[in-house]
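Budget justification, computational time. The allocation requested in the original proposal was used primarily to generate structure tokens for proteins on the priority list. As evidence of use, we reproduce two of the resulting records. The first is shown immediately below.
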Amino acid sequence: MPNVIIGIFLVLFTLEFVVELVLNELNIRQVRKSRAAQAVPEFFQDRISKDEYEQSARYTLAKSRFRRWSEVYGRIVILFLLFGGLLPLLENLIIAMLPQSLANSHIRGVLFCLAVGAILSLASLPIDLYSTFGIESRFGFNKTTLSLYFSDKLKGLILGILIGGPFLFVVLWLMQATGEYWWIWAFVFITLFQLLMIIIFPTFIAPWFNKFEPLASGELRDRIQALAKQIGFKSSGIFLMDGSKRSAHSNAYFTGIGRAKRIVLFDTLIEQMSIEQGLAVLAHEMGHYKMKHVRRMMLMQGLILFVGLYILSRLVNYEPVFSAFDLQPSNHAALVLFSLLSGPLTFYLAPLVNLLSRKHEYEADRFAVITLGKGKPMEEALINLTVKNLSNLTPNPWYSAYHYSHPTPTERIGAIRRITT
């Protein structure tokens, strides 16, 4: 039976890998074809120069070519972790390090899970370093320094231990202490934990990485406040984030729930957009809140979590799964194996999640247009963001369906024009 489990996993794993490679190659072919024909979408023909379009195509192709090798590398890492004897070696090392009294405690499980996470993080460093200091630097987007980069990694490690450690301890305790239906208790705990993180993230976690300052008084602040009042969007304030210290990419978002909600603008967004365009972007973000999109996405994620925990509860005592990867049955081994093995299955949920997300983006665009009484600012903002960020103007439809949580700029602008005509 262990050999059957390994065979099924390898088939699904390979299928996922092939699908990813094919989608990437289709996207590369689409970009090259459009580049050769200078097939700039109608909405951008008078708004993007030949040099900017060429730079956009080169940026997309550079990322796509690198994706080929990063996919291969990532697959090798997972296979080595599962079949290279690393997991049982880690288990034995942790047992040897711990005092006898803790050898069978939840501490052992927490350390095992954190160790696997640390290995995956270390393995991803070469990919992330080249992406940041290679591709992003080559195209003028990267603003971070090596010291800042590794400072961020260190902070992430500290947070992972301080937050992830207790989180894992409680999950493992629930798995042991609450009987057959532990997965329901775990679902309740994880859901409440996620809500807590949403509340504390804006105030306690995000400021550890970026500086947030109240937006200075002036026309932009006055008009944002008027817009928020018109919509009925209550927040704890409007903040400017120093995103430019890491990247030239721009964005705006709202974060938190309840009284912890805050509107956040990247300083790069302020520099790159007019007040009208900035208001359109914020009206779009407020539209997500007013139309309860965040709640819907959380419900969908909750449903996926609920089903996932139920499946895990059926497998946690199934010994052949553990023996297939040379591990002794345990709750912490079950968590690690499930997280590593579930990828080839959850991969196919991505288009469904993206379908809902893209629907929400269209609805938020419509909300912004109706709220502002005009579509031009939203259209101009999308064109501006697309050109400044060197976004792919002509992605392959299959690739975007699998990987884009937002409709393409061309699709969004076309929908906006249909609203205003």
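The second record produced under the same allocation is shown here.
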Amino acid sequence: MDLSFKLQELRKASNLSQEELGEKLDVSRQAISKWEAGQTSPEIKKIIQLSEIFNVSTDYLLIDELENADGAQNGKGEKLKSNKKSIMISLVLSAALLVCIIAITQLNAKNQKLSSEMAATQVELISETENTAPKEYERLAKYYFDFSRENRLDYVPFFAEKEAPTESPDYLFWAFAINLDNWGDDKGIMSQSYVDEVVASHFEITGISHLSMRKAWDYDGEKYTALPQSIREKPIYILKEYSTYIQNGIQTYEVVLYNCGLSNDTIPNEEDIERIRNNAINGLTDELTLFQTEKITYRHSFNGPIFVSHVKVDDEI
């Protein structure tokens, strides 16, 4: 059984579409299709991820591919084939280890760089910025403006530390919105497994109760189907305060943000967003209306932020 056939069987057994598997691997549906058709093969890093997703060994995925490669080259005795196979497996495992080491090193370097940049900026600097922002604050303000939109903070449920919601309706709009551009033909449908995975990856909770959400999402025991309605435009969050600290040996970030909207209630286009971001960094917020002030506490992971808490704060812009 070659790799392409194994991928098809494992994906179907896991009840995943090509698009869903592509999302887990950060590749396109077309890439998955080509792998399963035997037109191309995944790189070593993706082989490792596939073994983790399907809970199989890399040997299981690769061993027939290695044997086929040996057989195409020569028909020598079983001992020689066995030796070659052992060498190839050793090379694959060594490459996998190297990829993991590089990935961990890059992540640590990225987190250390971000932590050092953020730690250099004190709350006093932020409160002093009115018309001209320090470079440190400017970097932070841009980062969190984009961070809030990418991670759809407007749909992150409100909860205190260690009190994350335990029922699916609190997460459904957030789970859908963070992948809004990737649903393709399945727009408006989310599998239970996807909701479980995305919630477990970004919140400190290991299991949730799956329920329908009145006037929003129908649940049939396997998937969620959205009822006809619109979804909000990406939010506008303006940085107010920032701090970071070590908790249980883990770098933790705490930010206070203004949740805002345009005063004229129009829907901003990309040019508007760029202008709003630049103006807000320089304290020019006349065109914005404050909805509320929020405090987000989170940690970084390979999959993005892990939200520790999200609470409303009494404040004024």
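A brief technical remark on that second record: The domain at 1-111 is CATH 1.10.260.40 (434 Repressor (Amino-terminal Domain)).
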